[in-house]
Amino acid sequence: MSQWNQIQQLETKFLEQIDQIYDDKFPMEVRHLLAQWIENQDWESAYNNEPMATILLQNLLIKLDEHLDRVSQEKNLLLVHNLKRIRKMLQGKYHNNPVHVAVVVSNCLREERRILASANMPVQGPLEKSLQNNLDSERQRKVEHKASTIKNSTQMTEQDVKYLEDLQEEFDFRYKTMHSIEQNEKNSAAMKQEMLMLQEILNTLDYRRKEVLGKMAQIIKEVEAFVNNMLMEELLDWKRRQQIACIGGPLHSGLDQLQNCFTLLAESLFQIKRQLEKLDELLVKLTYDGDPIALQRPHLLERVNFLLYSLFQSSFIVERQPCMPTHPQRPLVLKTLIQFTVKLRLLIKLPELNYQIRVKATIDKNASTISNRRFVLCGTHVKAMNMDESENGSLSVEFRHLQPKEMKACAGNKGNEGPQMVTEELHSITFETQVCLYGLTIDLETGSLPVVMISNVSQLPNAWASIIWYNLSTNESQNLAFFNNPPSVGLSQVLEVLSWQFSSYIGRGLNSDQLGMLAEKLTGQQVIYTEHHISWSKFCKEHLPGKSFTFWAWLEAILELIKKHILPLWIDGCIMGFVSKEKERSLLKDKMPGTFLLRFSESNLGGITFTWVSQSENGEVDFHSVEPYNKGRLTALPFADILRDYKVITEDNVPENPLKYLYPDIPKDTAFGRHYSSQPSEVPRPTEGGTTGYVPSVFIPVSKILNDSTDPPSPSDLLPMSPSVYAVLREHLSPTVMETAMSSPYSTD
Description:
Elements (H helix, E strand, L loop, with lengths): L2 H5 L4 H10 L6 H6 L1 H5 L10 H24 L3 H18 L3 H23 L5 H9 L2 H43 L9 H58 L8 H31 L6 H24 E8 L9 E3 L4 E7 L11 E6 L11 E4 L3 E3 L10 E12 L22 E9 L2 E8 L4 E3 L5 H14 L15 E2 H16 L5 H12 L9 E2 L1 H6 L9 H21 L9 H8 L6 E6 L7 E8 L5 E5 L5 H6 L2 H7 L1 E3 L5 E2 L4 E2 L3 E2 H5 L29 E3 L18 H10 L2 H7 L8
Parallel strand pairs: 2-10, 13-18, 16-20
Antiparallel strand pairs: 1-3, 3-7, 4-6, 4-8, 5-7, 8-9, 11-12, 13-14, 14-15, 16-17, 18-19
Helix pairs in contact: 2-7, 5-6, 5-7, 7-14, 9-10, 9-11, 10-11, 10-12, 11-12, 14-17
C-alpha cells in the first residue's frame, strides 16, 4: 500500500497534522494526484545534485500537464483552473532553484512518515504527554476569546469617545452662542436657563471623561494581565514545542493563533493610543480644575506605550530555526562556508509594516569569553520583512543565502578550521530590526536557538548529539555556556527522543522492547525508567564497555545504515534490530527450525546480522549468526536479496538456504517478497549463454558450517567467484571492503 493511501486511512487528529505539512510551497492537490510517482522518486539525492533536481522538476510539470489534458477532456472547469494555477506557481517558484523543490518534497514525505509512525505507535512518552497537555484546545480557545473580548471593549470605548466629542461640540456651540448675546439680555430668564444647561452639560462632560478614562484604564489593565500571564505562557509553550520539534519531536503548531492574538492586542493598544490623542485634542479646547484628562492621560499613555514595546519585542520570533537544506533533519548544525536558511516572523501583522522593517542577521554578537572562536556571516544578511513570500500572508522574512565563516585567530595563528572543531561549543545567530509606527520607534532583537559549527561532515553526528542534549535538557533559548556543566536527563526522556530520531529520520520509531534494549545498553543493567538518569558523558563521550566507540556513535551508525541500505525493510517492521544475543536466543529456542530474526551488531559500527535456529540430530537446538553486513557489503547486494539467496554448505557439501521463517512465524518470501530486486538466481545451461557458450555468473552469499566454529575458514571453504563478478566488485569497492566481504562469515556478535 502506498504511503499516501496509508495516510488517508488515519484518524482525524493525524489528518489534521498532515494538513499542516502542505501549503503553497507544495500543494496537497499535487501530492494527491501524483502520489505514486512522487513516492518513487529519489528526492533526497537531488539535494546536492542540481541537474537531477532540474529533471525531477521538469518531470513533475510534465505529469501535471498529463493530468491537465485528461481533466480538460472531462470538461472539469474548476479542476482545470486549479491545476493551471498550481502548475504556474510551481514553475515560477522553483524554475531558478530546482534544488529547493527537492528539499520541500522530501521534507513533506519525511513528515508523513513521522506522522504514520506516531499513528502506528500511539504510546506517548513523558515529553510528548507534557506537550500534548500544553496543546489543550480549550485553553487556546480561551486565549483567542480573551483577545477578541479586549478588541470588542476597545471598539466600545471608540463609541464613547465619539459621544464625548459630540457632547463637547454641543457645549462649545452653546457657550459661544451665549457669549454672542447682547449684554442687556444676559440677565433674562432664558439666559439663566441656558446657564443651567451649560453647567449640566459640563457636569456630564466631566462624568463622561472620567467614565471613558476608567474604561481605558480597565482595558489596559486587562491587556497587562493577559500579556503577562496567558499570552506569554502560550508563546513560551510554542517555543518549547519548537525546541522539541527540532530534535525530531511532534510537529508544532499554533503560531497562526498566536499571531491573531498579538495582532488583536496591538490593534487594540494603538486604538487606545489614538483615543488618548483625541482626548488630548478635547483637553486643548476645554479644560477646568480637576479635569480627569489632564490628571490621568499621561500615565495611561505611558502604560500603553510600554505595552506596545513589550508586545512588539515578544512578537519578533524565529519561525524556522537555522538549517542547512542539505541536512533538513539536522537543524541547528551549520557547516562553515555552506549556505543555511532561517525564517523570522513578526506576530503583529499590520499592513503598514509591509516592506518597512529591515532585518539584519549577525552571529556571535553577544558572545562572551566562553569560546575564542568567532564567526562572520557571508551573503545577504539584511532583508525586508513582507507578506508576499509567506504562504499564509504573515509578516516574515527568510534568509536563504547566509554562510558562516570562521575568522582567523590573532597573532598569526591559523584559527580553528578543521576536524578538531569542538562540537560542544554553542553559538547564536542574532537578528535586529527597528519598527517605526504611529510615533513610536521600537528596537527589536531576537536570536536563534544555539547552533553548533562544524567544518567537516564527519563532525555532524557529534554536533547533532549536542543539539539533542541541549534542547532536551533545557528550555533556555540562549545558554551558550550549557556544556560547561551539562545536566543529566531522565532515562525515559532520553529513550523517547531516541525513538524520535528513528521516526523522524527513517520513518519508524522504536517499540518498548527495542527501547528496553537501548536502556540496558546505556545503563549496563535492567532499570526502572522513571528512576534512572543519564549523563551527557554516558550518552556521547564514554566508550561502551569493551568497545572502541560511544553509545551515540553506535546508534548514529545504525541510523545511517538503515537510511541508506535497508530503509524499506525497517519501515515494514521486518527488522527487530535492537535485541541482545541473550534475548535473541530465548526468542528463537522454541521456534521451528529455519526461524530467523534480524538484529544490529553490538560489536561493529553500522552492522546488521541475522541469526537462525536449527536442530541437530540429537535434538539439541543450535543457533547460527552470520558476520554482520556493513554498508560495503550491502552496496554490492541488496539485503533482501541476500536473505533470499543465502546458502550454507554442510559437511556433505550440499548448499541450502537455512532461512525459512521471519520471527515469529512469517514465511520468508511473504515478509521480504516485495523487496526482492530481481527474480531468484538460476544458472542456465551453457548453450543459453549465447554463442560464446559461457555460463552467466551470479553473486550468491554462501557460508560453510564448520565442525569447529573457532577454526578459520580455508580458501577451499568458499565457493569460487567468477572473474567478471570479482572485477565488478573490485571496481566499485575499496580493498578494505573487499577483504571484509570475503572474510569469514561467522562472528561471535
